[in-house]
Each structure stands twice: as structure tokens, then as C-alpha cells.
Amino acid sequence: MAGAAVTLLVPVLRGAAPTPLALPPLPYAPDALEPHLSARTLDFHYNRHHQGYLDNLNRLVAGTPLAAQSLEAIIAAVAGKPEQQGLFNNAAQVWNHSFFWNCMKPNGGGKPVGRLLARIEKDFKSYDAFRAAFEEAALTQFGSGWAWLVQDGETLRIVKTANADTPLTRGQIPLLTCDVWEHAYYLDYQNRRKAFVQVFLDHLVNWDFVAGRVHGGS
Description:
Layout lengths: L1 H6 L31 H23 L9 H8 L6 H18 L11 H11 L2 H14 L4 E8 L2 E8 L10 E7 L6 H4 L3 H12 L2 H7 L5
Antiparallel strand pairs: 1-2, 1-3
Helix pairs in contact: 2-4, 3-4, 6-8
């Protein structure tokens, strides 16, 4: 299952990776998520933090066999190897952020519909129960990290990961993530993580993207 999960890529990440790796473009204009997430926040987050992880990654793989590998192959190759922790951190953060951008859209959020809602109600009993569990994961992730909705086999689950960790290394299919590193929201929300997570769920989630990643079931 782990290998299968790694191959389930965000569309902008499919195919052989360029050398050096390049950031995928944002799927919307920098100001498209306002007033919920400012262009200033996206500028810092995408052009500085995300780009910084990518610059570090390209530097670390330069001149090695990994330089010719896809981003997902790099993550799989170095996951769980303490001597490669720095490389893993930067590669996983590039992937996590590229995925995160696709999890949002203008005029998003609210309650999903159709088959996705049915799957959520099946595995969490109700959308409200899903939402409460997702908020709890986001708010109880101590320090930096991510809250995720994943598919684990045939079941949808909520997990949280610290720092750069990603469900790709756990044999789970990422469906949705919320970045709870402070740089994701501090310019707009300061230390009010709860307010950011609620806005994310109410106004930003791209449920069409999430629904397109769910496999099997009814």
C-alpha cells in the first residue's frame, strides 16, 4: 500500500521530475483567496517558505542519483533514514505545500455534496462529526505540522503529522490537508490558529479536488 500511495500524485506533480525541480504554479491568483487568506500571506508562504524548501532540496540532491528522480521517489527513498532527515524534511515540505495549495480555492469550503459527503457520513457518522475531528487534529498538533483527511484502505480517517511528516510514508492516500505551521496564517491571524482552521473549513476547502482523489466505495 505504501508504494501505491506514493504514486497517487497531485496532478501538477505527475511525471518525471525536472532537474532542478521547480515549483508548480499556484492554482489561483495570489489575491484570489482574500479576504480569508491575504495575498501577502500567500506571497510569504509560497515565494519564500515553499521556494526555500525547494532551493534546499535542489542543493541537497545536486550531483546525486536522486537529482533525476521525481519528488515522490525522493521522499520514498529517504523516509525513515535518520542520516537523510534534512533531505526528507525539505522534499516532504515541497510536496505537502504543493498539495496544500490544491486543497483550497476561491469560494470554497462549507459542506461537501454527493458521493464525497456520503463517504464522510459513512466513516464519521456526520459532516459535523468529521469537522469536529478535523478541527481537533489541527488544534492539538503541538507546534508545527499538518492536519489531514486521508484514505486508509477503504476508510476515510483524520490524522495529524508533525513538522514535515506526510501520510505518503504511511501507506495512506492524502485527500485534504490544512497547514498549521504558524507561517501559514500568522500574518493574517497571529496566534489564532482556531480562527484560521475555521475559515479554512468554512471558506477555502476545494471539495472538488478532495472528491477527485477518493478511490473506490460508493
